[in-house]
Design brief:
This protein has 253 residues and is α/β, with parallel strands linked by helices. Helix content is 55%, strand content 18%.
């Protein structure tokens, strides 16, 4: 990616014509002031009252506009959101780390890594489709927030939900995985704060499981007792069954 390219969401916005609006507003205020002065000089009381009320209303509307603009500043902070920020090689390395961990847990050899890789990619794709369906909002994949890459994000005004996906074949979520996710969201939040962004962040952890009913219950119990107190944002944990996802999105019938 060239340095001059702009992959932020703000690039999609139409250019704002703030200069022409400011000029017209200033001209209107000058005209109202002139009308007030002329009415006062001629002793036209009704003109003075109407002009004064018009100026007061104009100032009030201007103040309300400024307050609204300040509230919407966080939405304009979408320039801190960049998609496809992670290079393909970095994404491949991240995925292969997860796949090799799955191979270790399943006790399979390297010859089965391609099959596991395919399953992992399909699981992530289907999980994100399901989350988008549940949230009923646009979902952007492989997006960077505050220079930190996430599997996906969901934008709702000034609230950005950062989505991380994990594929589990054992009834436990590895502590190092939890630590890595917490570090990512903490870094993203800290970077946005240092850049004076008003965006708010949430974290959604999507767990795609391929477990028996007993193991799934053990996982739920483990998640209840697992401490996420160090997470600096609100966290939403979703559990999705891989077989269910395949039936919903891949079955022809």
């Amino acid at each position: 990616m060239s340095k001059g390219s702009d992959n932020s969401l703000a690039r999609l916005d139409r250019p704002k014509r703030n200069i022409s609006t400011a000029v017209l507003s200033a001209a209107l205020l000058v005209l109202l002031g002139g009308l007030l002065a002329a009415s006062a000089a001629e002793g036209f009381l009704a003109g003075v009252i109407l002009s004064g009320l018009s100026i007061a209303a104009f100032i009030l509307l201007s103040l309300l506009h400024i307050a609204r603009a300040r509230r919407e500043t966080a939405v304009d902070d979408r320039r801190f959101i960049r998609w496809n920020a992670a290079l393909p090689e970095m994404q491949r390395q991240s995925v292969m780390l997860e796949v090799r961990e799955l191979a270790r847990l399943l006790e399979v050899g390297n010859e089965q890594l391609p099959d596991l890789l395919s399953a992992y990619i399909v699981a992530e794709d289907l999980a994100l489709r399901q989350i988008q369906q549940e949230e009923d909002r646009p979902l952007l994949r492989h997006v960077s927030i505050g220079k930190v890459p996430f599997d996906a994000i969901i934008v709702n005004g000034d609230l950005v939900t950062c989505v991380e996906v994990a594929f589990l074949v054992a009834p436990d979520l590895r502590p190092d995985k939890i630590d890595a996710v917490i570090r990512k969201i903490s870094t993203a939040k800290g970077n946005l704060h240092s850049m004076r962004s008003k965006l708010r962040l949430d974290l959604m952890l999507v767990l795609v499981t391929q477990l028996s009913a007993t193991d799934e219950e053990l996982l739920r119990d483990a998640l209840i007792t697992r401490r996420f107190s160090e997470t600096p944002v609100e966290i939403d944990i979703r559990m999705l069954d891989f077989e269910m996802l395949q039936k919903v999105y891949l079955s022809e019938g």
